[in-house]
Amino acid sequence: MPTIRKEILIEATPEQVWDAVRDVGAVHRRLVPKYTEDTRMNGHERTLTMLGGNVVREYIVSVDDQARRMAYAVVESQTPLLHHHASFQVFPHEDGGALLVWTTDFLPDGLAAEIQARVDRGSQVMKATIEAEAQGSVR
């Protein structure tokens, strides 16, 4: 099973980054506003409406405040996934900011290039969004 691990250095405190990540119902505002149009929550189920109209249904598996870790699984999407599980974890960075680690496991293997591109672009948008919020220019 392929794994993509992306480390994102963010110029914000770990607390600020974790606050955005743990806000699982506000993905469209606090993490990837240029990718998602809306987020709806129904218990542990999250439904994301993407800018192109695609809908992704996920289960929020865990929100662990002590470990600053959030895990989710895609259960329905237009992409032909057999399996998808991902997590975000926030760590203090030695240079004073935060390190956000995004780990994604998925099947089938043939989706690796597409998922890598999504993770790379999503990481750029998350970094910019969280940094702008931390500087007080968003929210």
Automatic annotation (TrEMBL):
InterPro entries: Polyketide_cyclase/dehydratase, START-like_dom_sf. It holds the Pfam family Polyketide_cyc2. Gene3D superfamilies: 3.30.530.20. Coiled coil: none annotated. This is SRPBCC family protein. It comes from Cohnella rhizosphaerae.
